[in-house]
Amino acid sequence: MRLDEETRRDFPILERVVNGRPLVYLDSAASSQRPRTVLEAMVRYYERSHANVHRSIHTLGEEATELYETARDRVQRFMGAPSREEIVFTRGTTDGLNLVADAIGHTLRPGDEILITEMEHHSNIIPWQMAARLSGAVVRAVPLAEPGAAAATLDLDALDRLLGPRTRVLAFTHVSNVLGTVLPVDRLAGLARDRGVLTVVDGAQAAPHMQIDMSALQCDFYVYSAHKMLGPTGIGVLYGRRDLLERLEPTRGGGEMIKEVWIDRAQWNDLPWRFEPGTPPIAEAVGLTAAIEYLEKLGMARVAEHERALTSQAIAELSRIPGVTVYGPPPGRERGAVVSFTVEDLHPHDVAALLDAEGIAVRAGHHCAMPLMRRLGVVGTSRASFSVFTSPEEVSLLARAVAGLGSAL
Amino acid sequence: VTTDGRPGARLAGAIDAGGAPVRRGVLYSDVIRERWRRPRFRGSLPDATAVAEDVNPLCGDRVRLTMKVEAGRVVGARFTGDSCAICTAASDVLAELLPGLTPDEAVALGAEDLLAVLDADIRPTRMRCVTLPLSVMAAALRSGHP
Fold it and tell me: Rounded to an integer, what distance in angstroms lies between the CA atom of residue A51 and that of residue A7?
């Protein structure tokens, strides 16, 4: 059975009717929908086990702590991290990247270089600009290999040149949220490691769609969100190599992240709690556990296979439409579950609004990647993105609707 | 039709029994289509006395407005920019409404004045497409003579 046929009924929201049409949800790269098991796990937690974690010496407190720390174990296994101490819960990808940039930023000196890429989401640009402003470091970017609409891959020769003696950090996306380009994390991490450069990977568009394995990727930090992988909003994961997390100073203080406190000083808690001040997102961790269980039951290899087929179909059907430009790697190359496109003489927001009138939800605009938009030479694109529940029929509905847009405005 | 006649208010108030927003009317009215295809006031005034440009952070839309103010009245306005159909049509309508107004009267124009001409149901998420030219106009008049 096809994956969407197997999973569709698990997602209550897919029963929605939008503008008189059954919802066709093609915006999972912005935020996926979640299966009933995730929703039920969170409700069950609130109805039966909620209390604050770690210091509540009563039954509910113990249950909540157990559920929260179990989530950490599940995440560790899901992403092939060597130890649970390396899994820090955050509020999401943006929060995780800010945490890392802030902590590393405090170790930078004037003239140090932070290397990012032209295809980054703003959340992997701005925190580094902030770190640079505070420390006197400089942000530089690896350019794309080709200009204009053909741009899809990084210029690896330029990367090699830009990794200089002052480079301290290489921060890059695993999968581009606009182009779908999959960057070779292990290779980039290897290049950086040879030169003593730390690697920070934005895995927001990878974790929901492919098997991720820290022992194979060999990066220093890896960050993603639960809400793009069938889990709840408000929680994300920061993986950090243990020896590095031990060396970095926490930059946010509060309860839970300390062992002992005096009026003028404190001793930090052990990893990973040192980086988790305050009451954590407990129900969200419970929901994340359920999301991981759901994905693992399907099998990440099957998930990747399903979405690869949908992506190839979307590229093929959209490319055939006169006036439509499809961005990203050419067919046959590995790519994530997103397809960005523009329609001649139509603004991306108008494309999205016209598709919405047919019940089809796509994302439109700059996708929080303005430097990339400039490089592509467009104000924005429309983007369809896929998940386990997306069907080939929905992809065809999108293509038919896009084909009819020429006369719509 | 609404109590105060504003399409925006009509939309915001339209909630069905299930709690989901209902869209009535059309987003892309004939006026919006026509002004998007054939804007009447696209361009720039070479002898402008007030100029401003701004971007909608939501979508990256950019509107640049050039205006000429003479003897205390706007005598001409033109716009350029990269923008969606709604923003383009709103800019075009604004440029048509401006001549003859004093700067104070111009700044007093609101979204409802543009919406009345656009004749469309604009959802809250797209309202900035309508108001962007208004804030650019206000900035231009504040900037005074370039």
Answer: 32
Question: Which residues are CB-neighbours of A14 under 8 A, at least 6 positions away?
Answer: A8, A23, A25, A33, A389
Q: Which is nearest to A316 in space by CA: A211, A399, A257, A212? A: A399
Query: What interhelical angle do B111-118 and B127-143 show, nearest 10?
Result: 130
Q: Would you call the peptide bond into A272 cis, given omega within 30 degrees of 0 as the criterion?
A: yes
CB contact under 8 A, A379 and B61: yes
Q: Would you call B126 and A370 a contact, using CB atoms and an 8 Å cutoff? A: no
Helix (H) / strand (E) containing B94: helix B85-97
Alpha-carbon gap, residue A31 to A17, rounded angstroms:
19
Is B61 in contact with B87 (CB distance < 8 Å)?
A: yes
Question: Which of A354, A380, A408 minimises the CB distance to B59?
Answer: A380
Instruction: Please give the Cα distance from A383 to A179 (Å, whole number).
Output: 9
Q: Is A409 on the interface with B (CB under 8 A)?
A: yes
Helices (H), A184-299: 185-194, 214-217, 242-247, 282-298
C-alpha distances (whole Å) from A249 to each of A105, A265, A359, A408 are 10, 14, 48, 56
Task: Say which DSSP state A283 is in.
Answer: H
Output the six-digit token pair for A342.
């523009």
Euclidean distance between CA atoms A134 and B6, whole angstroms = 47
Contact state of B85 with A409 under an 8 Å Cβ cutoff:
yes
Q: Is the CB of A349 less than 8 angstroms away from the CB of B27?
A: no
State how far the alpha carbon of B136 is from the alpha carbons of A5, A9, B67, in Å: 50, 48, 11
Instruction: Pick the residue from chain B with its C-alpha nearest to A382.
Output: B59
Q: Give the distance from residue A21's alpha carbon to the nearest chain B alpha carbon, in angstroms.
A: 13
For the record, the structure tokens of B59 come out as: 């979508």
pTM for the full predicted model: 0.91
Burial class of B14 by CB neighbour count within 10 A (0 to 12, 13 to 18, 19+): middle
Chain A residues whose beta carbon lies within 8 Å of the beta carbon of residue B57: none
* Sequence-ordered strand ranges (E) for A344-380: 360-361, 363-365
Find how far residue A117's CA is from the centre of its chain: 16
ipTM field: 0.79
Closest CB to B60 among A19, A350, A365: A365
How far is residue A96's CA from residue A281's CA, in Å, rounded to a whole number? 14
Q: pLDDT 10s per residue in chain A (409 long)?
A: 999 999 999 999 999 999 899 999 999 999 999 999 999 999 999 999 999 998 888 999 999 999 999 999 999 999 999 999 999 999 999 999 999 999 999 999 999 999 999 999 999 999 999 999 999 999 999 999 987 777 789 999 999 999 999 999 999 999 999 999 999 999 999 999 999 999 999 999 999 999 999 999 999 999 999 999 999 999 999 999 999 999 999 999 999 999 999 999 999 999 999 999 999 999 999 999 999 999 999 999 999 999 999 999 999 999 999 999 999 998 778 899 999 999 999 999 999 999 999 999 999 999 999 999 999 999 899 999 999 999 999 999 999 999 999 777 7
